[in-house]
Amino acid sequence: MPGSDDKGWIADRRKKQDRRAPADRRSGADRRLIDKGHPEGDRRTHAERRAAERRAGDRRNEAAWQPIALEAAATGDFDDAALVAAAVDARERARARFSGFKVGAALETATGEVVTGCNIENATYGLTMCAERVALYKALSDGRDVFTRIVVVADTDDPTPPCGSCRQLLWEYCGDIDVILANLSEVKRRMRLSQLLPLPFDARLLE
Asked: Fewest 10 Å CB contacts: which of 3, 50, 105, 159?
């Protein structure tokens, strides 16, 4: 039962646990800001440690993640440049009068067809639809269901990747497709969707 002896026991335990010098008893925030390291430990910077982790290879749990297999894609007439051009054209039709941030997307089907989309904003912001999902919904509603690549174009220096919602929808309906990120003048980056959405939640987990 609780009593005065309990308070004395708790005080004694605290004294035993915290025998560090006052200078070392920093708060969590202080420890993150001031990296004293260990006398003989790893004194690399955070950036150096992250680079080493990336060089070590894929750290995902492959038992919990497998890419969705795609059917063999037919060879289309569109190369990357033409697909990017289609996305650039689609971007011009964007309805982005609130943010001013226009995005275009071009989704390639397995038969070489290209379906485009642009972002469409709404005054409530929450109902805004991204270019990638517009292209995907158009393709699905027309009966297309196997895809190979998607291009996303914005007027930025850095690559503009799909948002989280778009990644989820693209994964479920397109699988591990190529994602090409470009601006108005050049391709900035190309990757697989599995790199943008590791360990995805999908229908496999509902079985």
From this structure: 3
